[in-house]
Design goal:
Elements: E1 3-9, E2 12-18, E3 29-33, E4 40-45, H1 54-58, H2 62-70, E5 73-78, H3 85-100, E6 106-111, H4 113-124, E7 130-134, H5 146-160, E8 180-186, H6 194-201, E9 208-212, E10 214-217, H7 229-246
Parallel strand pairs: 4-5, 4-6, 6-7, 7-8, 8-9
Antiparallel strand pairs: 1-2, 2-3, 3-5
Helix pairs in contact: 3-4
């Protein structure tokens, strides 16, 4: 049986849900609520090469959860299993949120591999209103080139099998994506270059692709590439405007 724990902090209400163990158990989810009336729900999915799981991996998205709660959104920071099983967990989190907040619209935001899985989820759940993908692969079959690119491809093969790379590539399911997309990349990201976002943007009408300049702000989804302060502020503006228009 799941255990619930409520934590009041920094003007928001955080609800930590610890799921029971076992292969069919729900993924770990942490809900951060706004102090006032909620404008909508945003699902958050950490990165980690389809390998990292648990509270440590989820910590990447904690600052995003707090920031979105301050903007008036219920933020659900969700874990998912390693490998292909992670897609099942990401879809399950959407279904759980849709049942729990029936009157609120839902967006998602994912970092790297978490964004990749959330894009696949968007193709399966057309009622998802918007999606922010942070340096997330859209075509696993074209990953590779240089040490970082080859590492990303190796992780994808480990997670899904080389024979399944096309099957698990969002570009091949683009015609099923109804959500408004914001695709964000670090300009010099050698693991998941901006071309990955461009390929998907060409297939999903209305998609915004944002390439951020190099700087000193460290983000895990930059895959070793820092982001400039000005570019991060620009991204926050695009993110805010997307969610405001999609979740109203």
């Amino acid at each position: 049986m799941a255990r619930l724990r409520l934590i009041a902090t920094a003007g928001v209400l955080a609800l930590a849900l610890t799921a029971a163990s076992g292969a069919d158990a729900a993924p770990l989810r942490k809900v951060t609520r706004p102090s006032g009336k909620a404008r909508g729900v945003v699902l958050l999915f950490h990165g980690g090469g389809w390998v990292a799981t648990g509270r440590t991996a989820m910590a990447e998205m904690n600052p995003t959860a707090r920031r979105l709660a301050r903007l008036g959104y219920v933020a659900v920071n969700a874990d998912y299993s390693a490998g292909a099983r992670g897609l099942h967990d990401v879809v399950a989190t959407y279904d759980w949120a849709a049942r729990r907040w029936r009157k609120l619209r839902i967006c998602a935001e994912g970092s790297s591999s978490g964004g990749h899985l959330a894009l696949l989820m968007a193709a399966r759940r057309p009622r998802l209103r918007c999606m922010v993908a942070l340096s997330s692969p859209s075509n696993l079959a074209t990953l590779g080139g240089g040490p970082n690119g080859d590492r990303a491809r190796s992780l994808a093969i480990r997670a899904f099998g080389e024979e399944n790379l096309a099957r698990y590539s969002p570009v091949n399911q683009a015609d099923r994506i109804e959500a408004d997309l914001l695709l964000v990349n670090a300009r010099r990201d050698a693991a998941v270059p901006p071309e990955q976002a461009f390929a998907l943007a060409d297939l999903v009408p209305g998609t915004t692709s944002l390439v951020l300049s190099t700087g000193q702000v460290s983000v895990l989804w930059g895959h070793g590439e820092g982001i400039s302060t000005v570019s991060m502020s620009r991204f926050y503006g695009y993110e805010r405007d997307l969610m405001r228009s999609s979740l109203r």
